[in-house]
Design goal:
By secondary structure, the chain is an alpha/beta fold. It has helices spanning 45-58, 73-88, 102-112, 129-142, 199-212, 227-242, 256-268, 282-293; strands at 2-12, 17-26, 33-43, 64-70, 116-121, 148-153, 163-169, 176-183, 186-193, 219-224, 270-272. Helix 1 runs parallel beside helix 3 (102-112).
Amino acid sequence: MDHIIIYTDGGSDPNPGPGGWGAVLVDPRTRKTRELSGGEAATTNNRMELTAAIQALESLRDPCRVDLFTDSQYLRKGITQWLAAWKRRGWRKKDGNPVLNADLWKRLAAASQRHEIAWEWVKGHSGNLYNERADELATSAIRSPGGGSSVPSEAPTRPTVECEIFLKVSGSRRGGWAAVVRQGEDEEVIQGAYPGASANQLDILAAAGLLETLPARGRVAVYTASDYLRNGATEWLVGWRRRGWKTASGSAVKNATDWRRLARQLERLEVLWPSVKGQEVPEWKLLAQRLKSSGA
Protein backbone atom coordinates (compact mmCIF):
# COMPACT_ATOMS: atom_id res chain seq x y z
CA MET A 1 0.00 0.00 0.00
CA ASP A 2 1.18 3.52 -0.73
CA HIS A 3 2.04 5.66 2.28
CA ILE A 4 0.57 9.14 2.58
CA ILE A 5 0.74 11.77 5.34
CA ILE A 6 -2.27 14.04 5.81
CA TYR A 7 -2.68 17.20 7.87
CA THR A 8 -6.20 18.55 8.34
CA ASP A 9 -7.81 21.56 9.99
CA GLY A 10 -11.19 23.23 10.07
CA GLY A 11 -13.14 25.91 11.85
CA SER A 12 -15.80 28.58 11.71
CA ASP A 13 -15.80 32.25 12.61
CA PRO A 14 -17.92 32.86 14.61
CA ASN A 15 -18.88 29.40 15.84
CA PRO A 16 -21.44 28.61 14.50
CA GLY A 17 -21.09 30.69 11.38
CA PRO A 18 -19.19 30.72 8.07
CA GLY A 19 -16.67 27.88 8.06
CA GLY A 20 -13.73 26.49 6.17
CA TRP A 21 -11.59 23.38 6.06
CA GLY A 22 -8.17 22.56 4.68
CA ALA A 23 -6.02 19.50 4.12
CA VAL A 24 -2.43 18.97 3.02
CA LEU A 25 -1.50 15.56 1.60
CA VAL A 26 2.21 14.77 1.62
CA ASP A 27 4.07 11.98 -0.17
CA PRO A 28 6.87 11.19 2.34
CA ARG A 29 9.15 9.83 -0.39
CA THR A 30 9.10 12.76 -2.78
CA ARG A 31 7.78 15.49 -0.43
CA LYS A 32 5.25 16.40 -3.12
CA THR A 33 2.11 17.92 -1.63
CA ARG A 34 -1.51 18.30 -2.65
CA GLU A 35 -3.76 20.86 -1.02
CA LEU A 36 -7.54 20.67 -0.61
CA SER A 37 -9.90 23.25 0.84
CA GLY A 38 -13.51 24.31 0.92
CA GLY A 39 -16.10 26.09 3.02
CA GLU A 40 -19.75 26.42 4.02
CA ALA A 41 -21.82 29.50 4.74
CA ALA A 42 -23.28 28.16 8.01
CA THR A 43 -21.51 25.45 10.01
CA THR A 44 -19.47 24.75 13.17
CA ASN A 45 -15.86 24.16 14.14
CA ASN A 46 -16.43 20.44 14.67
CA ARG A 47 -18.22 19.90 11.37
CA MET A 48 -15.37 21.55 9.50
CA GLU A 49 -12.78 19.39 11.33
CA LEU A 50 -14.70 16.28 10.29
CA THR A 51 -15.18 17.52 6.73
CA ALA A 52 -11.45 18.13 6.30
CA ALA A 53 -10.64 14.51 7.21
CA ILE A 54 -13.47 13.15 5.06
CA GLN A 55 -12.48 15.12 1.98
CA ALA A 56 -8.82 14.16 2.35
CA LEU A 57 -9.56 10.44 2.69
CA GLU A 58 -12.18 10.42 -0.07
CA SER A 59 -9.66 12.06 -2.42
CA LEU A 60 -7.41 8.96 -2.27
CA ARG A 61 -8.19 6.77 -5.27
CA ASP A 62 -6.54 3.62 -3.90
CA PRO A 63 -6.32 2.12 -0.41
CA CYS A 64 -3.35 3.64 1.42
CA ARG A 65 -1.42 3.52 4.65
CA VAL A 66 -2.23 6.91 6.14
CA ASP A 67 -0.78 8.97 8.97
CA LEU A 68 -3.47 11.59 9.58
CA PHE A 69 -2.52 14.52 11.82
CA THR A 70 -5.19 16.72 13.37
CA ASP A 71 -5.18 19.34 16.12
CA SER A 72 -8.79 18.43 16.98
CA GLN A 73 -9.23 16.11 19.97
CA TYR A 74 -12.91 15.88 19.00
CA LEU A 75 -11.97 14.29 15.69
CA ARG A 76 -9.20 12.07 17.03
CA LYS A 77 -11.05 10.78 20.11
CA GLY A 78 -14.27 10.43 18.19
CA ILE A 79 -12.78 8.13 15.55
CA THR A 80 -10.48 6.17 17.89
CA GLN A 81 -12.47 5.96 21.15
CA TRP A 82 -16.15 6.86 20.80
CA LEU A 83 -17.20 5.70 17.32
CA ALA A 84 -17.59 1.97 18.03
CA ALA A 85 -19.90 2.60 20.99
CA TRP A 86 -21.96 5.13 19.05
CA LYS A 87 -22.54 2.59 16.28
CA ARG A 88 -23.37 -0.13 18.78
CA ARG A 89 -26.01 2.08 20.42
CA GLY A 90 -27.55 3.07 17.10
CA TRP A 91 -25.78 6.44 16.93
CA ARG A 92 -26.79 7.37 20.46
CA LYS A 93 -24.61 8.73 23.25
CA LYS A 94 -24.48 7.18 26.72
CA ASP A 95 -27.27 9.46 27.88
CA GLY A 96 -29.49 8.32 25.02
CA ASN A 97 -29.32 11.56 23.07
CA PRO A 98 -28.48 11.46 19.36
CA VAL A 99 -24.82 11.81 18.41
CA LEU A 100 -24.10 15.28 17.07
CA ASN A 101 -22.90 15.42 13.47
CA ALA A 102 -23.86 11.78 12.96
CA ASP A 103 -24.13 12.30 9.20
CA LEU A 104 -20.46 13.25 9.00
CA TRP A 105 -19.30 10.58 11.45
CA LYS A 106 -21.00 7.93 9.28
CA ARG A 107 -19.34 9.31 6.18
CA LEU A 108 -15.96 9.44 7.91
CA ALA A 109 -16.35 5.84 9.13
CA ALA A 110 -17.05 4.72 5.56
CA ALA A 111 -14.12 6.68 4.15
CA SER A 112 -11.79 5.21 6.78
CA GLN A 113 -12.60 1.58 6.05
CA ARG A 114 -10.57 1.53 2.82
CA HIS A 115 -7.34 2.58 4.47
CA GLU A 116 -4.95 1.69 7.27
CA ILE A 117 -5.00 4.90 9.30
CA ALA A 118 -2.93 6.07 12.26
CA TRP A 119 -4.81 9.00 13.83
CA GLU A 120 -2.25 11.39 15.32
CA TRP A 121 -2.75 14.56 17.31
CA VAL A 122 -0.58 17.63 16.71
CA LYS A 123 -0.71 20.77 18.81
CA GLY A 124 -2.14 23.63 16.77
CA HIS A 125 -0.05 26.74 16.03
CA SER A 126 3.07 25.08 17.39
CA GLY A 127 5.25 25.61 14.32
CA ASN A 128 4.46 22.42 12.36
CA LEU A 129 4.58 23.64 8.77
CA TYR A 130 1.87 21.43 7.32
CA ASN A 131 -0.49 21.98 10.25
CA GLU A 132 0.03 25.72 9.82
CA ARG A 133 -0.66 25.42 6.10
CA ALA A 134 -3.88 23.44 6.70
CA ASP A 135 -4.98 26.18 9.11
CA GLU A 136 -4.16 28.81 6.50
CA LEU A 137 -6.25 26.99 3.88
CA ALA A 138 -9.19 26.68 6.27
CA THR A 139 -8.99 30.34 7.27
CA SER A 140 -8.92 31.43 3.62
CA ALA A 141 -11.95 29.25 2.87
CA ILE A 142 -13.93 30.87 5.69
CA ARG A 143 -13.73 34.13 3.77
CA SER A 144 -15.21 32.49 0.66
CA PRO A 145 -17.65 29.84 1.96
CA GLY A 146 -18.81 27.33 -0.61
CA GLY A 147 -15.60 27.62 -2.56
CA GLY A 148 -13.18 24.76 -2.83
CA SER A 149 -9.90 23.84 -4.41
CA SER A 150 -7.65 20.94 -5.12
CA VAL A 151 -4.28 22.46 -5.80
CA PRO A 152 -1.33 20.22 -6.60
CA SER A 153 1.83 21.81 -5.24
CA GLU A 154 5.04 20.13 -6.27
CA ALA A 155 8.12 20.97 -4.30
CA PRO A 156 11.32 21.69 -6.23
CA THR A 157 13.11 18.72 -7.74
CA ARG A 158 15.28 17.58 -4.87
CA PRO A 159 18.44 15.51 -4.75
CA THR A 160 18.73 12.49 -2.48
CA VAL A 161 20.09 13.85 0.79
CA GLU A 162 20.05 13.04 4.49
CA CYS A 163 19.15 16.58 5.51
CA GLU A 164 17.31 19.52 3.92
CA ILE A 165 17.57 23.10 5.14
CA PHE A 166 15.10 25.75 3.96
CA LEU A 167 16.42 29.18 4.94
CA LYS A 168 14.61 32.52 5.08
CA VAL A 169 16.01 35.80 6.42
CA SER A 170 14.37 39.07 7.39
CA GLY A 171 15.25 42.29 5.62
CA SER A 172 15.02 44.36 8.81
CA ARG A 173 17.95 45.53 10.91
CA ARG A 174 16.81 43.20 13.67
CA GLY A 175 18.59 40.48 11.75
CA GLY A 176 16.00 37.75 12.11
CA TRP A 177 16.21 34.44 10.29
CA ALA A 178 14.22 31.19 10.33
CA ALA A 179 14.78 27.76 8.86
CA VAL A 180 13.14 24.40 8.43
CA VAL A 181 15.60 21.58 9.12
CA ARG A 182 14.23 18.29 7.82
CA GLN A 183 15.95 14.94 8.35
CA GLY A 184 13.84 12.11 7.00
CA GLU A 185 10.37 12.59 8.47
CA ASP A 186 11.75 14.58 11.42
CA GLU A 187 11.26 18.30 11.03
CA GLU A 188 12.20 21.28 13.17
CA VAL A 189 11.68 25.01 12.77
CA ILE A 190 14.59 27.06 14.11
CA GLN A 191 14.77 30.83 14.50
CA GLY A 192 17.56 33.19 15.44
CA ALA A 193 18.89 36.70 14.98
CA TYR A 194 22.07 38.61 14.24
CA PRO A 195 21.05 42.21 15.06
CA GLY A 196 22.54 44.78 12.74
CA ALA A 197 23.65 42.29 10.09
CA SER A 198 22.96 43.10 6.46
CA ALA A 199 20.71 40.74 4.49
CA ASN A 200 23.73 39.25 2.68
CA GLN A 201 25.65 38.80 5.90
CA LEU A 202 22.60 37.31 7.58
CA ASP A 203 22.32 34.64 4.89
CA ILE A 204 25.94 33.55 5.41
CA LEU A 205 25.77 33.57 9.21
CA ALA A 206 22.50 31.65 9.37
CA ALA A 207 23.67 29.02 6.89
CA ALA A 208 27.00 28.56 8.67
CA GLY A 209 25.34 28.32 12.07
CA LEU A 210 22.84 25.72 10.90
CA LEU A 211 25.51 23.58 9.22
CA GLU A 212 27.60 23.70 12.40
CA THR A 213 24.84 21.82 14.23
CA LEU A 214 24.98 18.84 11.86
CA PRO A 215 27.19 15.75 12.24
CA ALA A 216 29.97 15.33 9.67
CA ARG A 217 28.30 12.71 7.57
CA GLY A 218 25.80 12.48 4.75
CA ARG A 219 24.68 15.05 2.20
CA VAL A 220 22.90 18.30 2.97
CA ALA A 221 20.78 20.41 0.63
CA VAL A 222 20.40 24.10 1.46
CA TYR A 223 17.49 25.91 -0.20
CA THR A 224 17.91 29.67 -0.23
CA ALA A 225 16.41 32.54 -2.20
CA SER A 226 19.75 34.36 -1.99
CA ASP A 227 21.81 34.22 -5.19
CA TYR A 228 24.60 35.90 -3.21
CA LEU A 229 24.78 32.98 -0.79
CA ARG A 230 24.33 30.24 -3.41
CA ASN A 231 26.75 31.70 -5.95
CA GLY A 232 29.30 32.57 -3.28
CA ALA A 233 29.28 29.03 -1.89
CA THR A 234 29.33 27.27 -5.27
CA GLU A 235 31.29 29.58 -7.61
CA TRP A 236 33.14 32.45 -5.96
CA LEU A 237 34.54 30.92 -2.79
CA VAL A 238 37.33 28.91 -4.44
CA GLY A 239 38.68 31.96 -6.25
CA TRP A 240 38.47 34.17 -3.17
CA ARG A 241 40.52 31.71 -1.13
CA ARG A 242 43.08 31.25 -3.89
CA ARG A 243 43.58 35.02 -4.11
CA GLY A 244 43.88 35.45 -0.34
CA TRP A 245 40.28 36.62 0.10
CA LYS A 246 40.50 39.17 -2.68
CA THR A 247 38.00 39.63 -5.50
CA ALA A 248 39.07 39.36 -9.13
CA SER A 249 39.53 43.16 -9.15
CA GLY A 250 41.85 42.98 -6.14
CA SER A 251 39.52 44.46 -3.53
CA ALA A 252 38.84 42.77 -0.20
CA VAL A 253 35.97 40.29 -0.14
CA LYS A 254 33.01 41.66 1.78
CA ASN A 255 31.96 39.61 4.82
CA ALA A 256 35.20 37.60 4.52
CA THR A 257 35.14 36.53 8.19
CA ASP A 258 31.66 35.09 7.75
CA TRP A 259 32.57 33.42 4.46
CA ARG A 260 35.53 31.75 6.19
CA ARG A 261 33.18 30.38 8.83
CA LEU A 262 30.91 28.95 6.16
CA ALA A 263 33.88 27.59 4.18
CA ARG A 264 34.93 25.49 7.18
CA GLN A 265 31.54 23.79 7.13
CA LEU A 266 31.68 23.21 3.38
CA GLU A 267 34.97 21.36 3.90
CA ARG A 268 33.40 19.25 6.65
CA LEU A 269 30.09 18.41 4.93
CA GLU A 270 28.89 17.60 1.43
CA VAL A 271 26.57 20.53 0.83
CA LEU A 272 24.35 20.99 -2.24
CA TRP A 273 22.79 24.31 -3.17
CA PRO A 274 19.85 23.53 -5.52
CA SER A 275 18.57 26.38 -7.65
CA VAL A 276 14.83 26.92 -7.19
CA LYS A 277 14.32 30.07 -9.23
CA GLY A 278 10.78 30.33 -10.51
CA GLN A 279 9.58 27.45 -8.34
CA GLU A 280 7.17 27.64 -5.42
CA VAL A 281 8.77 26.71 -2.12
CA PRO A 282 5.97 26.42 0.48
CA GLU A 283 8.46 26.34 3.34
CA TRP A 284 9.68 29.86 2.52
CA LYS A 285 6.17 31.29 2.65
CA LEU A 286 5.52 29.79 6.04
CA LEU A 287 8.89 30.89 7.36
CA ALA A 288 8.19 34.43 6.19
CA GLN A 289 4.99 34.36 8.20
CA ARG A 290 6.86 33.14 11.26
CA LEU A 291 9.37 35.97 10.94
CA LYS A 292 6.62 38.53 10.53
CA SER A 293 4.62 37.24 13.51
CA SER A 294 7.73 37.28 15.71
CA GLY A 295 8.54 40.86 14.71
CA ALA A 296 11.92 39.91 13.20
